[in-house]
Specification:
Aminopeptidase; eleven-stranded mixed β-sheet; 30% helix; 33% strand; globular; acyltransferase activity, transferring groups other than amino-acyl groups; transferase; GNAT_dom; GNAT family N-acetyltransferase
C-alpha cells in the first residue's frame, strides 16, 4: 500500500485520540470499532513494545487489539508468539475516480449530502453503524460528504466519504436489507466518485471485510482492484 493511501486510510477515519506506546500507535475508539480502537506498528517497533500497547488499551478500558498488514510477517509472528490470533481479514481496494464517472446516474438515485440527514443516520444505525461510529465522521477534516441512496421512491442507502491529499476514501456503505442486491450500492459508489471528481480526488479507496463476499464481488465488478490487506489480532477471551 503506497504511503499516500496509508495516510488517507488513517486520516479519513480517525480515532478520538492517539498515544504512542513504544513502537506502536494506539487509537482510542470510544466504542467505534476496531479500525479506531487498534494499535498499529510504527517504524522501529520491538517485541517488547507489545505489552506497552496492551497497557494503553487497558488504561483506556478497551480490548487489546492490533492491526497488521497481511505482508508484515515479522509483526504477525511477534503477535502470535504473545498469544494474539487473527480476526476479520480485510481487503483494501482502490480505483481511479474516472473509472466510476463514465456513466450518468439514473434520476433521483443518489445524492451527496452534508451533514447527513436523519434518515441516513437511521439507515446506518439499522446496519450496526451506531452513534459511536457516526461520531467518527464528525472528526474528519473537510472535504467530507455523505451519500444518500434512493430506490423505489424511498431512501434506502447511506455512505460516508472523505478526501485526504487527492484520495477519496468511502466508509460505512449501508443499504437496508429489503433493497439490497438491486444495484443501489453501485450507484452510490458512482455518486461518491462524481463528488470526488468535483473535489479533485484522482483515486477512490475503501476497506471491506473478506467475509462480505457480496460487497467484494460488487467492488470488483465496478473495477476496484485489491492493493493490500490487513487483519486484527486479539487474544481469545479478552
Amino acid at each position: 500500500m503506497d504511503p499516500a493511501l496509508v495516510q488517507a486510510f488513517e486520516a479519513t477515519w480517525p480515532a478520538a485520540e492517539y498515544a504512542d506506546a513504544g513502537g506502536f500507535r494506539v487509537g482510542r475508539g470510544l466504542g467505534a470499532g476496531g479500525r479506531v480502537s487498534s494499535a498499529r506498528a510504527l517504524s522501529g517497533w520491538k517485541d517488547g513494545d507489545i505489552p506497552a500497547a496492551v497497557r494503553k488499551h487497558q488504561e483506556w478500558g478497551q480490548r487489546p487489539l492490533f492491526r497488521a498488514l497481511d505482508d508484515d510477517d515479522e509483526l504477525v509472528a511477534a503477535l502470535e508468539a504473545q498469544g494474539f490470533r487473527r480476526e476479520n481479514p480485510t481487503a483494501i481496494m482502490e480505483i481511479e475516480t474516472a473509472g466510476l464517472t463514465d456513466r450518468d446516474l439514473p434520476p433521483v438515485t443518489a445524492f451527496a449530502v452534508w451533514p447527513p440527514m436523519a434518515i441516513q443516520r437511521d439507515i446506518w444505525t439499522a446496519g450496526n453503524i451506531g452513534p459511536a461510529r457516526q461520531a467518527v465522521m464528525e472528526r474528519v477534516e473537510m472535504p467530507v460528504t455523505s451519500i444518500l441512496g434512493r430506490i423505489e421512491d424511498r431512501a434506502a442507502g447511506a455512505a460516508f466519504a472523505a478526501i485526504h491529499q487527492g484520495i477519496a476514501m468511502v466508509h460505512c456503505v449501508e443499504v437496508l436489507p429489503s433493497w439490497q442486491r438491486k444495484g443501489l450500492a453501485g450507484w452510490m459508489m458512482r455518486q461518491a466518485a462524481f463528488w470526488a471528481a468535483e473535489n479533485r480526488a484522482e483515486r477512490i479507496g475503501l476497506a471491506v471485510s473478506r467475509a462480505n463476499g457480496g460487497a467484494m464481488a460488487l467492488y470488483r465488478r465496478l473495477g476496484f482492484r485489491e492493493v493490500a490487506g490487513y487483519s486484527y489480532y486479539a487474544r481469545p477471551g479478552e
